[in-house]
């Protein structure tokens, strides 16, 4: 038991230092998008807001999804770093349980476990709200993204999506806006 406490505290320290959103307690049980249709979800999404992560350091974030094979979605995440370079990563997503198609698991590296990617709400054409949470003993690590098919999203829709998170006890005051300014982000298209 002592070893688990030491490992948990070490992990907590590392994650806290890397700007992960770590909270006390277990992951909440959330409802996901009913009748999720991955074929309607594919295409490009712009990151509007997110909970801070250690693995996303840039602006102009986009996620492009494609059908890789039956039941498997290809993932291409891109962002513009402060030095003007584009950072990208390729992965795949699939539903752990086909009966819950909105509860996806995303993998970027063969040697690391997949991460949760739960689509809580999407109209497929305008917005998507994604949440992920992993339990680490007494703590949980949370991720959330508000995505849009365009580089902007109405304040009304953003507030509606934030209220879904808030009603589940997720700290929406920790969400940070992603710069999607066309001029600033033009370096990603060059």
Task: Write a structural description.
By secondary structure, the protein is α+β, with helices and mostly antiparallel strands. Helices cover 19% and strands 41% of the residues. It has helices spanning 2-17, 38-41, 155-167, 182-185, and strands at residues 21-24, 43-50, 59-69, 72-80, 86-95, 103-107, 115-122, 127-136, 139-148, 176-177. It has an eight-stranded antiparallel beta barrel with strand order 2-3-4-5-6-7-8-9. The longest helix has 16 residues, at 2-17. The protein starts with a helix and ends in a 5-residue tail after the last helix. Residues 3-19 have low confidence and may be disordered.
What's the gist of this structure?
This protein has 190 residues and is of the alpha+beta class.
List the helices and strands and how they pair.
Elements (H helix, E strand, L loop, with lengths): L1 H16 L3 E4 L13 H4 L1 E8 L8 E11 L2 E9 L5 E10 L7 E5 L7 E8 L4 E10 L2 E10 L6 H13 L8 E2 L4 H4 L5
Strand content: 35-45%
Report the uncertain regions.
3-19
Termini separation (Å)? 53 Å
Quaternary arrangement of the chains shown? single chain
Major sheet, described briefly?
8 strands, antiparallel, barrel
β-strand number: 10
Number of helices: 4
Descriptors for this entry?
190 residues; eight-stranded antiparallel barrel; 4 helices; single chain; 10 strands; 41% strand; alpha+beta; 19% helix; disordered N terminus
